[in-house]
Amino acid sequence: MKVIDIIDSEKPSLSFEVFPPKNNENFDKIKQAIEEIAALHPSYMSVTYGAGGGTSDNTAQIAVNIREQFGVETVAHLSCISSNRSKIKEELDRLQRTGVENILALRGDMPEGFNPDELTYRHASELTEEIRNYGGFCIGGACYPEGHPESKTSAEDIMHLKEKVDAGCQFLTTQMFFDNNILYNFLYRLQSAGVNVPVVAGIMPVINPSSIKRICRISGTSLPQRFVRIVERYSDNPEAMKQAGIAYATEQIVDLFANGVKAVHVYSMDRPDVATAIMNNISEIIR
Ligand code: FAD
């Protein structure tokens, strides 16, 4: 099933993102965690793709497994920055062969010391267009309510987002954000710019406070002061931090659905306990 049809349906959509195992060493443990998340029967699950291509085999395999074993629809992420046309064609052939119908088309992070002249793909819109020309896939893309860190202005970022949508992107999933007003303002700006595809709100339950400040700095995500206080208050008590992180994410999700957002994507980080808690907290809301 195409994810766009899931998002467009009347029911609120709650989906989870998982990371495939990076190597064979911890494959079984991560596979099991992912299966526990799939057993919750979210609206769909997305499976990330290593920027260097290291996990590309696992992305397709995990996506197929989730769909076949649990009947949960999947989105396979695909990044292009370290790739070329023949590799992308191979990936698309493989995804098509295995029955994956949905792709999140990404550029990936710029490799250090890159020479732009050597890159086949510079922007996700080029990959999007290629997938659209290949045919048969529902295509999603990434967007950034606080602007992509490489963009000088948010207007410029939204202009390029429009190009990505015009190239064939049918839905957008946001970078994490911790203040819903940032998303609401972003949605108004998209509307004014004529970006009319559905936007799936990306929510990160913060369980591990040591990495969150670094991740936010790199991704350009701001932490509201009231959330910083929560992290400071509970960061040396892992169980309390987990409860607080799940409660904060739940509050964001309830507010989003109440204010007309139809689809929420939870960065569940291969944590079935976190995915289960979120699912239980809003079970009646998404029924
Ligand atoms: P783009 O859409 O190409 O945008 C990147 C920057 O280029 C932006 O600043 C944009 O404004 C600018 N730009 C776009 N077009 C043009 C143009 N024509 N001229 C000039 N500038 C332009 N990374 C992974 O490696 N694997 C994953 O699985 C993965 N999953 C992700 C899922 C989500 C929901 C999100 C939000 C991000 C994910 N990422 C993933 C990270 C992503 O690859 C990085 O954020 C990357 O830096 C940008 O990718 P993009 O697809 O948004 O790029």
Describe the secondary structure blueprint for this structure.
Layout: H1 3-8, E1 13-18, H2 27-38, E2 45-47, H3 56-70, E3 74-79, H4 85-97, E4 102-106, H5 124-134, E5 138-143, H6 154-166, E6 171-174, H7 180-192, E7 199-203, H8 209-219, H9 225-234, H10 238-258, E8 263-267, H11 272-281
Parallel strand pairs: 1-2, 1-8, 2-3, 3-4, 4-5, 5-6, 6-7, 7-8
Helix pairs in contact: 5-6, 9-10, 10-11
Bound molecules: flavin-adenine dinucleotide (FAD).
The site of flavin-adenine dinucleotide has 24 residues, from strand 3, strand 4, helix 5 and helix 6.
Task: List key phrases describing it.
alpha/beta; 47% helix; 287 residues; binds flavin-adenine dinucleotide; TIM Barrel; 11 helices
The whole-number mean of residue pLDDT values reads 94
Q: Which value, in Å, is the CA radius of gyration? A: 18 Å
Helix content: 40-55%
Share of β-strand residues: 5-15%
Largest sheet: 8 strands, parallel, barrel
Question: Can you describe this structure?
Answer:
The protein has one domain (3-286): TIM Barrel (Alpha-Beta Barrel), CATH 3.20.20. Helices cover 47% and strands 14% of the residues. It has eleven helices and eight strands. α6 links the parallel β5 and β6 (171-174). It is globular. The model has no long low-confidence stretch (mean pLDDT 94). Bound molecules: flavin-adenine dinucleotide. Flavin-adenine dinucleotide is lined by residues 48-49, 51, 77, 79, 104, 106-109, 123-125, 142, 148, 150-151, 157, 160, 163-164, 173, 175, 202. Residues 48-49, 51, 77, 79, 104, 106-109, 123-125, 142, 148, 150-151, 157, 160, 163-164, 173, 175, 202 line the site of flavin-adenine dinucleotide (FAD).
